[in-house]
Specification:
Blueprint lengths: L23 E8 L4 E15 L4 E10 L6 E9 L2 E6 L2 E3 L2 E3 L6 E8 L7 E6 L9 E12 L3 E3 L2 E3 L2 E12 L10 E9 L3 E9 L4 E11 L9
């Protein structure tokens, strides 16, 4: 898709990925690969220091409606102009623990200043650098979305759309003449966050769709309050 000419300016204080404590988002996931529909709820706990990872960041609890889905923590923190994301974590009682094989980090998950016409690349190691594991090579581009995005949670305008080409390499994909490639499209609404994700196979068929069904974003507290 071609970039839309964007002449506007983002109002001061606008956030496309708010992380205020007690904010909550619930998404419906329609997964063809898993042949099921389920829900995921993200709730911002707040900023914490995590001794097991030696990092301070915003902790988000992610809960799944699937049986034995449980609750898993995510951690977001600023790094070189981007939000980095740590995932594949777990709880030992109330303590956040990393898996034995290491940590799954997306060092450039999202630009802190999310605007149109950006481009960046990164490599994700979903299972760390464990022997025999695969990685995902990603290229991202941002666009201003001129259309209103309608999902169960409402209608959202002035969204930023991120298009991502993802190539799966190594591990089980080693030696493949045509490594698997997926295209992801994410829409972020101002002062709301992610409202829709669509994953497409190389032939254009939809593999997965994520849509926001309800949310509550808390206003960030002002300094001194």
């Amino acid at each position: 898709m071609s970039a839309c000419r964007w002449k506007g300016a983002i109002p001061p204080g606008t956030s496309y990925f708010p992380l205020s404590p007690d904010s909550v988002w619930t998404y419906q996931i329609m997964s063809r690969s898993q042949a099921t529909i389920f829900q995921v709820t993200d709730r911002v706990v707040g900023i914490k220091y995590v001794p097991a990872l030696k990092v301070t960041g915003s902790v988000v609890d992610e809960s799944y409606s699937l049986s034995r889905g449980g609750t898993r923590p995510l951690i977001y923190y600023a790094k070189n102009g981007y939000l980095a994301r740590l995932s594949a974590l777990g709880y030992d009682e109330e303590k956040i623990e990393a898996p034995a094989w290491g940590r799954s980090e997306e060092a450039q998950f999202l630009p802190i200043a999310l605007v149109p016409h950006l481009k960046w690349s990164n490599v994700i190691f979903p299972y760390g650098h464990m022997a025999g594991s695969f990685d995902v090579n990603q290229t991202h581009r941002t666009f201003y979305e001129p259309k209103v995005i309608s999902v169960p949670a409402g209608n959202f305008s002035s969204c930023i759309r991120i298009e991502t080409d993802a190539i799966y390499e190594g591990g089980n994909y080693s030696g493949s003449n045509r490594p698997p490639k997926l295209c992801y499209m994410d829409w972020y609404a101002p002062n709301v966050g992610l409202v829709r994700t669509v994953a497409l196979e190389a032939n254009g068929s939809e593999l997965e769709r994520v849509e926001l069904i309800h949310y509550k974003v808390q206003q960030p507290k002002q300094a001194g309050n």
